[in-house]
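Field: sequence (string)
Field: structure_tokens (string)

Example rows 1 and 2, in order.
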Amino acid sequence: MLLYLFLTCFPFLFFFKLKPLPPWPIELKFSFASIHKLIKNSFGISYFTSFHSKMSKKINFGSKVDSFREVEGGGGAISVLDLPDLALECIIERLPPASLCSMAGVCSSLRSMCTADHFWQKHMKNKWGRIIGPAAYREWQWHVALRKDSSLLKHGGPTTCLMRILSIVRPSWWFRPKVDDCSKQGSLPDDSIMSWFLALESGEFWFPAQVYNRENGHVGFMLSCYDAELSYDQRTDTFQARYPPHGRRAVAIENNVPWERLRAPPIDTSPHDLHLSDCLNELRPGDHIEIQWRRNKEFPYGWWYGVVGHLESCDGNENFCRCHQSDTVALEFNQYAPGSRWRNKTVNRKEHREEGDEAGGFYGGIRKLSSVEEISTWKRLWPSDILE
């Protein structure tokens, strides 16, 4: 019986030939061990499982082999590109920005994937979404357009009449356009989200946003929020802020501005324009508000925090209060001491526009605050001492 089994199986054993696994890639800039380490450090996976791919891709910068047999026959190599597209995308979307940049430098196929906008949208939103608004996006579009126009001039190409006009009338409040040298981004599309993210991260791109308690909490700006142009300092994880000139005053610059003192402009309008209030009819005592204020009509507006109070004719009893039915709205700025000329202000509910004078400044549009986050931010910035 044993002899029969031996004679039956012997031909198969004789002709069966084990083939070694294909060699690991050596022409990639980093090996599977590097990929394993990258993934482990990026999102905590400590074991990278083996895989078998029916369709294999050759490593040489994204060109593909026709079949697994061609790889098996020699000359090919198994790489991270052998992963199914869905699995590879799942890995890429979990990589942090620095790892995405590293992965994009490996080959043309990975570069094409790692620079795609949908992988960078999440990173842009998570890091910059709270302080980047429509004004910053428009500024980036102007920045890209001017850079393209500058590139045409550099290479002797004709610049359009439209671009010449745009370079003059770009919607920046006080600074002339600055075209930065972003050659470090290589052949990245100028209008890609990755290009914008890297420009923000490097500090090369100055963008409009607003700063609470400007100039390191200068007493004259407590509980206010002013427009500025910002540049990020990756080394300190803070910002440099450039404030527009006030009258004859030169441009003010503040360094080391932390993230918690920044926000995107809540109203998509120039700081020199009056905000048309749409909340006056619904204001009631206890509501939290922001109001535009400027020293004189040459200055830009800042947003100042206050609350809606009771009229002098009201004793504050909720059961008998009729303040919300009056055409006059009482505003209180309780960060100032009782008796201060800045403590109280009344506005007309139906006909309010900009009002004031050179002595007390000019009050503009009003925003009602409904967001708990906005209100808590103002309370967190409340001064330790009552202002005079």
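Row 2 begins here:
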Amino acid sequence: MMVSHLKPLVAAMLLSPLLLSAAQAATTVNLSYNGAPDPDKNAVHAFATNLETLVEEKTGGEIKLKLYPNSMLGEEQERMEQVMSSPSLNVASFAGMSPVVPEIYVSAIPFLFDDFDDARSFFDNGDYWQQVQSDLNERAGLKLLAVVEEGGFLAFTNNKRPIASPDDFEGLRFRAMDPSQVALYEAFGASGTPIPWTETYMGLKTGVADGQMNPPMYIILGSLDEVQKYLTLANIQYSDQFLVGNAAMIDGWDDDLREAFLEAVQEANDKARKYNEGKVDERIAYLEEQGMEVIRPDEEQLTAFRELGQPAYLDWLSEQDIDQNYIDMALEDAGFEKKGEEKNDSDSDSE
């Protein structure tokens, strides 16, 4: 009799680890993004690998990420459709984001930021960016989780002459990524021609274009130092991509799990920012070692770039039917009025 009474207890003891294991089974979430799985060549991959580790650590293994670099799950718009329709994550570029929130182009107004601190404050604290986050959630059911740096600020390169001011662009031909870049070059007296990234090296080598703009990381990644002599550090645009996640998935997690996941995102992004900023000078030094001449425009020259480049880009934005309110919010968040006041105060002090 005693044995028969023990059988259910033994059975329950044997079954309980299986039930516990099932209850704690990890949720695997796909994370897709562009670029090679090489942290030295792809800042987004460095972010993704940090995020993979931190998510598993902070959620106690309840959430595990599966990484898909090199656009393995499709190109930009295809990946965005996937994250809208399934429980997944994606690091999107402007090409992926703009069909849903074209207002994101406002964040790429040239010469908007002086340095990393300015750019990070704009995205972390600004009213404009909060509105874009809200729009993305409302229109596409996505949460905008992080702004992921991909290599610092864009710089001009060319193989004809040193460029220190807008006047130096006269008559040059530049590779453009999109029509907004064409508008910028034309404002400086140059011309812009769309060339895919995969054809940029050959286009520069054969003279289809004299120059292009990208952050130092991409100049190295594309071996553009082999076909470009001059590098102008003009802080043109902050180079970034955007981590987005399926809102239904994230909202469906319990509060503790969601909080742990968001903490992992924040920490991974903080690490990526420090890593990225620490690499910028090293990359510029490398390009100098390869024979590129580095030009660092002074404040007066940077002002000249901004005064010509920004109006041309703003005109382009108006042609895209971007609501002026977004532009006003972004300029205010970037502190342009304040910067102007500080400059005027400085001018009066010098007199």
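free_text_note (row 2): Residues 1-23, 338-351 have pLDDT under 50 and may be disordered.
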